[in-house]
């Protein structure tokens, strides 16, 4: 009888590439494992179609509920107490695979000075990257709001923190709520490193490489995660968004 195997169904952003990279790193440990009599052997699905077939072979329909659905179910339970009605069924993994990428929202803040000279080109770039603008407003950032957009690393240096806050509150910024599949990661990838010089060295077509001047005046702020995107949407667009397809704010409301 052969030895047992471990079968896993994994989910994540760029899942195929991320898993392939992880398995490649594991090969570096194979020599040590082989000395002890165990050789690590792995097989992974390479396409969504193969993933679907293999998942259907090893698992049943009731084995999986997506994390999105779990969060939604929690939201439903609380919403029922306050008289709200939402979807009352869990979304299975197989349904999720067949449906495809979920449309999400993220927030792009074009910093003072950058948007007034380059707005037409930036909007054109967004359109080419299949983003849909579902919220837009001019805003003069208050100090507490500006502080909330800065990373913990920036806040550790008082001089750098003051420079960022002074710049962010120096004029009008343009805030956009953007919608597309995998919106958060796609926007971060387009913006590039926060230092325009690093962005230029990495890829001169990155947006901060094109529109940034310094680490302070780097042109853009973008939500760094889904959770931060939800926070930013609630902060900048409390009145709601002009997109019937996006239920992010409703589902995360509670």
From TrEMBL:
Domain Nucleoside diphosphate kinase-like: 103-243
Keywords: Kinase, Transferase
InterPro entries documented for this protein: NDK-like_dom, NDK-like_dom_sf, TXND_domain-containing
Pfam families cross-referenced by the UniProt entry: NDK (PF00334)
The keyword Kinase belongs to this UniProt entry's keyword annotation: yes
Gene3D superfamilies: Nucleoside diphosphate kinase-like domain
Any one GO MF annotation of this record: kinase activity
Record keyword Cell inner membrane present: no
SMART domains: NDK
Protein origin, superkingdom: Eukaryota
Family: Belongs to the NDK family.
Name of the protein: NDK7 kinase
Species in which this protein is naturally found: Alca torda (Razorbill)
